[in-house]
Give the backbone structure.
Amino acid sequence: MIGYLTRSTHLGILSMARRKQQAEIITGIDIGSTAIRIAVGQYTPRNDALGGDIHILGTADVRSSGVAKGTITSIEEAVSSVSHVLEEVERLIGVPIEHAWVGISGTQILSQESHGVIAVAKTDGEISHEDVTRVVEAAQTVAAPLNYEVVHVLPRSFSVDGQTGIKDPVGMTGVRLEVDAQMIYGATPHLKNITKAIYRTGIDIDDLVLSVMAAANTVLTQEQKELGVCMVDIGGSTTTIAVFEEGNILHTAVIPIGSNHITNDLALGLQTSIEIAERIKITHGSCNGKGLTKKDVIDLSEFGMPDQVVSKKFVTEIVSARVVELLEKIDDELLTLQRRSMLPAGVVLCGGGAKLHDIVDVAKAVFQMNASYGFPTGIRSATDTINDLSFTAAIGLVRWGAEMSATVESGMKFSIPGGTQAAKQVRKLFRFLIP
């Protein structure tokens, strides 16, 4: 059903169809506030069943310039950063990158529920793929927030003539088809600027995808989604969550706190520069001070500071305070959904901020549920970065593209809204300008 989860354009679908017969190169670009990360994989379709093999060929990351809180603040700097990471990965794999799936996040992403209703087209009442497409499109007729446009339409459940809880109505018989959907919106200027920055590097965009959805697609199992699970992607400036239940998306939200806030707290508390605070966080950052004594100290001379030592427990208290604040805000989101301490599959953490020591133990205490790290599953790779939580979203974008290719290959029908107006305008402009 991934075909109904995307805002793919006709151009993207057709280009994938042309490439489907051979092992294709799929690229995922995750645009973050701290770094821009890229993963390149090779997808080889299988003839025996829907699906194929995914092998990550290479990954790369560069410090993101011109991006703040997931939003483009300087087109020129963002283009330079994207070009730099493309050059690095092309040098690594020896193949030019021509198109990519682009992950988006940030505070300019909104989520709200919608409902669509249609009459079944066929006289015998049998529901077809076209009917499902029409009802999903009907869910989009609700007016979007001012200056926002649709990124994803995520069907949660269908109902046929009042029978609710249907996951796939195709082939059923009825007169009235309804859908409850989760709408993901992005600010039009935000989407337009990201699209412009990518096109100016000379590559095509297969689609824009919410990063946490791509990460969840490669980390979470279907069983976890059925039982109920919360996916948490801790980025540099923001944290994005996605809650699943009964196999469907239930809620998404963006919290304006990320790992950069921990760095800022350390810089203030230790009276150091941001660069040194970041290095201290990476080297000694922990969320749990149990077992630490006054004798446990950090020698700041290792980080270029004058001869000075600081208590490791003090550093841990600074880190822990901000992490607990973040996790409590996530817990508040679960409370509004009436899912606090009620998700059997617990909470799954990914993103660069999830690499803090003992964050899983703190998460278990705050959420009163199971918590674990989210590593990609079912993907082969010769690189160690497949187990780097920072690359989860980028690798998830590769899987997202592979599953879209597999769905095209199988001949399944798609719900294709046709892409955002902003993306289409920019595509026309840069297809004309770039030789």
Notes: The first helix runs from residue 10 to 19. The CA atoms of residues 129 and 413 lie 6 Å apart.
